[in-house]
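Consider a protein example.
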Amino acid sequence: MDLVCVNCGEPWDVDHVLHDAPQEFIRKGGVIKKCPACPKEGQPNLDEKTRVKLDAVEELGEILGDDIDGLAASLEDFGLA
């Protein structure tokens, strides 16, 4: 299962984010705010559809808080990851 960076849209395996390289990610609960694929500064230029999708991921993550597995499963169920 994957989590998605809400800054750039890159999907990341939950185990990688939590166990392999947690220091490479800035996150709040299950919401990845910045990842190794992000540009060094600012947000990448994403189309409106992608930005809306990432906003939905962020909102869902805020609702689920620290339930990282629940967020990853929900992203999969909704086709957001």
In short: The chain has one domain: 2-77. The chain has three helices and four strands. The mean pLDDT is 95. The helical segments are 14-20, 48-64, 68-77.
